[in-house]
């Protein structure tokens, strides 16, 4: 199980990223617009830099829904490899069969 503080910090980052997504996208589009003047583009870039760092979606870490583990994460299932194995052995994941040969 991951530290609770790490999980809470990551959830806070995800919420900030969601809250500032529209504003961040608008400023990014304006700063990359070649038809806009250089002053407008530079101003948009400065406003983008003033946003909280944790509002960037890049800073959000993929974590397991069950254990909060950040490594060995399967995106499709939103589980870590360890939680996937445990739930699979219990038969709680449909279609997952433990292989034996």
From TrEMBL:
A biological process from GO: translation
Cellular component, GO annotation: cytoplasm; small ribosomal subunit
This protein's UniProt keywords: Ribonucleoprotein, Ribosomal protein, RNA-binding, rRNA-binding
Residue intervals passing through the bilayer: none
MF (Gene Ontology): rRNA binding; structural constituent of ribosome
Superkingdom of the organism of origin: Bacteria
Similarity comment: Belongs to the universal ribosomal protein uS14 family.
Subunit structure: Part of the 30S ribosomal subunit. Contacts proteins S3 and S10.
Database matches in PANTHER family: 30S RIBOSOMAL PROTEIN S14 (PTHR19836), SMALL RIBOSOMAL SUBUNIT PROTEIN US14M (PTHR19836:SF19)
Known function: Binds 16S rRNA, required for the assembly of 30S particles and may also be responsible for determining the conformation of the 16S rRNA at the A site.
Protein name, per record: Small ribosomal subunit protein uS14
Organism: Devosia limi DSM 17137
């Amino acid at each position: 199980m991951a530290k609770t503080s790490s999980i809470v910090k990551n959830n806070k980052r995800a919420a900030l990223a969601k809250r500032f997504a529209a504003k961040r996208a608008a400023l990014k589009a304006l700063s990359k617009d070649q038809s806009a003047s250089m002053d407008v583009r530079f101003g948009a870039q400065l406003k983008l830099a003033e946003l909280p760092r944790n509002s960037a979606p890049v800073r959000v870490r993929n974590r397991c829904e069950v254990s909060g583990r950040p490594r060995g994460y399967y995106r499709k299932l939103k589980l870590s490899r360890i939680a996937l194995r445990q739930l699979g052995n219990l038969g709680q994941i449909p279609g997952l069969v433990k292989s034996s040969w």
